[in-house]
Design goal:
The protein has 130 residues and is mostly helical. The protein is 39% helix and 6% strand. The chain has four helices and three strands, in the order ααββαβα. The longest helix is centred in the C-terminal third of the chain and has 21 residues, at 109-129. The radius of gyration is 19 Å and the shape is extended. Bound molecules: zinc ion (ZN). The site of zinc ion (ZN) has 8 residues, from α3.
Amino acid sequence: MSYSKDLSRRLRKKLPMVDYGAIEARVVAHEMPNFTMVVPPHPDKYPKHPGHKGSVFGGICNRTACSQRHAVFYNRGTNGYYCADDAIAINRYSGAHPLCIRVDHDLTHDEMNAHTRTMYEEMRRDRVAG
Ligand SMILES: [Zn+2]
């Protein structure tokens, strides 16, 4: 049965209401694996989630409303790691110079800073050329 069909049945009081939010929170808490932080979060990382969320290559996505694993895209603006779905969505709105880039390891702070500098350099070059 689809979620909306189930909800519609419950709203017609054929079944007791279920708190889907509570179930989802329990599932997320249960499934949240304890990824080991290899590099501490960048001091400018946004947002500052507690724990390892968004701070581990291959870990949990940095987007607040997302709990997907396999966050292998690094956001040169927020200094966090994102899942492919969110990285693609973010890049759709970030113009010629994608904010999110695919990386293959936990970046050091120097590497993070270099990626951010590179992005600003690309943008500056475009402004000069344009
Ligand atoms: Zn995500």
